[in-house]
Amino acid sequence: MMKKLKVWLVSLLCIATFLIASPVLADRIAEKSPDYPIVVENLNALLTLKSDPQQTEYTPEELKQAISELEFQKYVLETSEDWGICRNETGKNLAIYARNQKKATPNTLFYLGDGQETDDNWDCEAVYIPNDVNVASLELPDGQPSAVRILDGTNLTISTNPDTGELLLDAPSALIEVVDATDTTLSIPNVTQTEIDAQVANAPID
Description:
32% of the residues lie in helices and 21% in strands. It is of the alpha+beta class and 206 residues long. The strands form 2 sheets. The chain has a 5-stranded antiparallel β-sheet with strand order 3-2-4-5-8. A 3-stranded mixed β-sheet has the order 1-6-7, with no helix packed on it.
């Protein structure tokens, strides 16, 4: 009886150890994201700057805010298992940039239909913003098309404010970045929302 009890306890301990360890063993985005080393490098630089009594580049409040944002980005990358995911709840088509991480394909402009969510095997890199569309709480290039890039590991839902018609992004500002046509990693065309609505949805979806 004692022997059986010992075997049972050992088995229980092994199961518990696996359950505790499994999140650690999970394939985190931080292990393969090009964003991660940049975030870590920038965070370390600011932490070094914080300890320098001679630094005048930032006010104490600005430095604290910048460090907090980078720490949050680092946390997202270290805890997310999926690449960027975009969900369209706007009531119309969205143009998005996505790439297949398993096949290392380049960013391609796709059209994501209303109510659709991108495949979690793909990376939704950015959302295209026509020059005739506004995004709440974001400053966009005046009269020019742009894109909103999201940090790897971000799960972004895009909806529409029914009163103003502006796009609403549910990700914290620390996880998104506005880029214009000078960005070298995204090809930003000049198309209107009407032209996007006329396209057949072709984005990779779950």
